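Q: what sequence does this backbone want?
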């Protein structure tokens, strides 16, 4: 779900259909056609790297990491050479952009974005970041096992130092953190996020206080701790995918520790889910969440495949799709009501509870709100306070206002201020997320942006095709929802900027 970086954005996809058809309608400029022809090689490497990265988390034997890492490194270098090829660069430089259509303009805009970054950052720095983060991931795991942040602190310090160098090389107008934010969400800045988080913080806290004082507030729910049969849960997940009209000739589902989505091509998208001993909600919401990501990639106009436009545009938009399916559909009472028999089948204890409490009890379980320590398990309201905490820390780290070794104290104080609770250990506090060890600083805010966007999308969707409660139980309701998303968002791939 959100444990890992839950979606890896690809930039183009395989096209089994007639190329001349595509080129005739969307890409006609002869220089653009030459650019796209060269780009196919970069695309091919990208897609095989994606397949390899999926394999690494789903099937690769434990000791496969070393040589896999080497092979991936070589492929990455080949990709960079192709991207910075002189003929390719001069084609891009000399194309007259005022003569291009929106698709062609977007090809140039997206390529320039990647090229500029690749030109400004020396490969030596990239290698150093790669090496440092490879090591840091191992150290983060150890530190987490030992519940000791100080073991990880020197590695995080080094990552921050290298990322700061990167921000200086790329350059920025107002804040170095802007450079890192832009990597995950084009044009996102500290100036915009400060307004965003300042505006949502107090209303969210007020809402949380209101809920805590209401008679509906519960500290825990009986279904959280009941064991379930994993085989039955697997069946339940496939029934949900079938209900969502998932095209299983183009989509597959597997298992991994941290659920994620990988786009191998427009006809081959992979999602994963997870199975724990208790708390079946987690497996179900992971499946639906990842399906939202997958559907976005599966519904991009296939004529954009093998071009820099053939995939989701940004993480904030991607997360809006996954959060829409997870929260607006998956936690909807009408949806849960359809699957009561599947829920009862999970175990005799669960069946007993559902028989007694009915859909209301299940609905309450899926929509509990309470402050908790772990972000990935947080509800829809407190979730954003978790993100605000990380945003504040990342911003201060990159600006040099705070140092890595001071993070546990800063984390605990900020969490107490935002959520009213204080972690008892580094394990349930500052060490919980993998992102920093991967060097993914600037990523977290896209989770909040995505959730808020999903609210806007729900609003627009209901205005034009009817309420979700109604659509969910309609024979063709899911088709209507999915074709709305296709028409308004998915089919454009990366043609428009996220904003
Ligand atoms: Zn996601």
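A:
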């Amino acid at each position: 779900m959100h444990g890992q970086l839950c979606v890896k954005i690809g930039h183009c996809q395989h096209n089994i259909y007639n190329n001349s058809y595509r080129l005739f309608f969307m890409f006609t400029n002869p220089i653009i056609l030459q650019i796209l022809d060269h780009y196919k090689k970069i695309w091919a490497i990208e897609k095989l790297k994606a397949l390899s990265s999926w394999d690494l988390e789903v099937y690769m034997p434990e000791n496969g990491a070393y040589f896999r890492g080497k092979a991936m490194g070589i492929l990455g270098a080949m990709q960079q050479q192709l991207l910075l090829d002189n003929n390719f660069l001069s084609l891009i430089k000399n194309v007259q952009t005022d003569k291009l259509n929106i698709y062609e303009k977007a090809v140039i805009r997206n390529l320039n974005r990647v090229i500029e970054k690749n030109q400004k950052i020396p490969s030596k720095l990239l290698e150093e970041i790669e090496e440092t983060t490879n090591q840091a991931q191992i150290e983060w795991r150890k530190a987490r096992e030992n519940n000791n942040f100080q073991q990880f602190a020197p590695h995080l310090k080094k990552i921050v130092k290298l990322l700061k160098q990167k921000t200086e090389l790329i350059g920025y107008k107002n804040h170095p953190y802007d450079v890192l934010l832009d990597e995950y969400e084009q044009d996102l800045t500290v100036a915009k996020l400060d307004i965003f988080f300042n505006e949502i913080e107090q209303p969210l806290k007020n809402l949380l206080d209101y809920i805590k004082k209401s008679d509906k507030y519960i500290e825990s729910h009986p279904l959280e701790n009941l064991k379930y049969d994993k085989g039955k849960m697997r069946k339940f997940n496939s029934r949900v995918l079938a209900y969502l009209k998932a095209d299983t000739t183009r989509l597959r589902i597997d298992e991994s520790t941290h659920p994620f989505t990988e786009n191998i091509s427009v006809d081959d998208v992979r999602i994963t889910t997870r199975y724990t001993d208790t708390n079946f909600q987690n497996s179900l919401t992971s499946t639906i969440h990842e399906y939202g990501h997958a559907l976005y990639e599966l519904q991009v106009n296939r004529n954009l495949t093998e071009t820099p436009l053939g995939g989701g545009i940004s993480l904030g938009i991607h997360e809006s799709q996954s959060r829409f399916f997870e929260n607006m559909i998956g936690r909807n009472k009408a949806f849960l009501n359809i699957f009561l028999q599947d829920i009862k089948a999970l175990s005799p204890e669960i069946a007993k509870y559902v028989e007694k409490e009915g859909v209301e009890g299940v609905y309450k379980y899926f929509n509990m709100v309470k402050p908790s320590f772990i972000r990935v398990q947080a509800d829809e309201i407190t979730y954003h306070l978790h993100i605000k905490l990380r945003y504040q820390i990342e911003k201060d780290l990159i600006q040099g206002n705070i140092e890595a070794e001071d993070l546990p104290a800063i984390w605990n104080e900020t969490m107490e201020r935002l959520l009213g609770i204080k972690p008892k250990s580094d394990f349930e506090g500052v060490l919980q997320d993998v992102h920093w060890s991967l060097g993914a600083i600037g990523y977290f805010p896209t989770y909040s942006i995505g959730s808020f966007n999903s609210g806007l999308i729900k609003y627009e969707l209901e205005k034009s095709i009817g309420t979700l409660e109604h659509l969910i139980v309609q024979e063709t309701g899911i088709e209507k929802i999915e074709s709305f998303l296709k028409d308004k968002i998915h089919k454009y791939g990366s043609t428009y900027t996220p904003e």
